[in-house]
Design goal:
The complex is a heterodimer of chains A (211) and B (182). Chain A is mainly alpha-helical. Helices cover 65% and strands 0% of the residues of chain A. Chain A has one domain. Chain A starts with 9 loop residues before the first helix and ends in an 8-residue tail after the last helix. The longest helix of chain B is centred in the C-terminal third of the chain and has 22 residues. The chains are: A mainly alpha (211), B mainly alpha (182).
Chain lengths: 211, 182
């Protein structure tokens, strides 16, 4: 079935805009729209990125699989094309360490005002453009090591998806508990307060006041 | 209690729960999932389509994406991307956590405060990263959050490989000493 429409319905556009605003708002409040936070994670010092992603994955998997069980949603996953996924991950990882923003947090960083993020987003569109332009040459490469199709982890293991989700929840909780226990607490730029719901001034009450 | 919308930072667990619930919402309301780089690809593809007449006949990209139901268009994914910009703008405006910086502290410590140098590498790094994401079929959002929460094999292999490579690259680029500057 070929689709030719350039525009989707207004309700789809509004739903997309709303979802994007919430997503960008959450990314900024999470502090991950910043190069320093992304590199803090890659240098294994600030575990904010892992905490956000793993929590989102566990919470998301429960709800989405519940929706699928109720026939209210359907899965939409990418096939496991070995060469495409592995070579892509290699380029992605190197690029990420240089730019210090993910594709989504780069857009959020641009919204926050970081100019290097805005320039980075232009680079991202360019990278995507090279992919499109070179598609005829790239397609055989992505397929060269085999395509295992749209498979999920529970299918590969031959177990119930709820067993995988339960194990994941348990594993993630344990990992995050260990991270929170051994993570360095305070640094020069006030990392200590970053994970607090309260604003920094409530924690860093100026000593001079009232003395 | 202070208004949470004007707080500069929220608990990462709370943010994670929020993104998880947002995923339920996108699956239930639009039959879509959080994904970013597909849209960068669509923007580039639409630009190339208008710049090169007849590209749809010569470049297999357009036929393949049409078959997948992912033809470049102005739709949910474009609005998601635009929304991310404005959501972050709104959040940072409310809290005053605005950035006007071009050269972040760790980069300055390692490579100096040249804005041209930082922007050049941000551009190149971004291009390489998204080129890789399109080869693999997703990024931190499409694979890292949406694919992983659907327990897709491709996504779990992508995200573990990508983060392992990124950590290794970060230590090679910035060194262990760099940890004192983040």
């Amino acid at each position: 079935m070929f689709e030719s429409q350039l525009f989707e319905s207004p309700i789809q556009l509004l739903l997309g805009l709303f979802s994007g605003i919430v997503f960008g708002f959450l990314l900024q409040k999470g502090g991950v729209a910043k190069y320093q936070t992304i590199l803090g994670q890659l240098l294994l010092k600030d575990w904010t990125v892992a905490k956000i992603m793993l929590t989102a994955i566990v919470v998301g998997s429960m709800g989405v699989y519940a929706l699928v069980a109720l026939d209210a949603a359907r899965l939409d996953i990418w096939p496991f094309q070995v060469a495409g996924v592995l070579v892509g991950a290699l380029f992605f990882g190197i690029g990420l360490a240089v730019i210090g923003y993910c594709p989504g947090t780069g857009m959020a960083g641009s919204g926050e005002g970081s100019r290097d993020a805005t320039v980075g987003v232009l680079g991202m569109v360019t990278g995507a453009g090279i992919f499109v332009a070179a598609y005829n040459w790239l397609e055989p490469i992505t397929m060269s090591l085999g395509n295992y199709g749209k498979v999920t982890v529970p299918e590969v293991l031959g177990v119930s998806e709820w067993l995988v989700i339960g194990s994941l929840a348990l594993g993630v909780s344990t990992a995050l508990w260990l991270v929170a226990r051994y993570e360095p607490r305070a640094t020069s730029d006030g990392l200590q307060d970053r994970h607090s719901w309260r604003s920094p001034e409530r924690v860093h009450r100026p000593m001079v006041r009232g003395s | 209690m202070k208004n949470p919308f004007t707080a500069r930072i929220w608990s990462p667990y709370l943010v994670g729960i929020g993104i998880g619930i947002l995923s339920w919402f996108t699956f239930a309301t639009a039959d879509k999932h959080l994904a970013i780089t597909l849209q960068y690809e669509h923007i580039a593809a639409l630009a190339e389509k208008s710049a090169v007449p007849g590209i749809e006949q010569t470049n297999r990209y357009f036929a393949v994406r049409a078959q997948q139901g992912l033809s470049p268009k102005v739709g949910w994914y474009l609005m998601l991307l635009i929304g991310v910009f404005f959501g972050s703008l709104l959040s940072s405006r409310l809290s005053g956590d605005r950035s006007r910086s071009t050269v972040p502290p760790l980069w300055r410590w390692r490579f100096g405060d040249s804005k041209v140098k930082r922007c050049s590498f941000a551009f190149l790094g971004g291009a390489l990263m998204v080129f890789g994401a399109r080869l693999a079929g997703g990024c931190t959002s499409g694979h890292g959050i949406s694919g992983d929460l659907q327990l897709a094999l491709s996504s779990w292999i992508f995200i573990t490989t990508a983060f392992a490579v990124a950590c290794l690259a970060a230590f090679l680029i910035y060194g262990k000493e760099g940890r004192n500057h983040v």
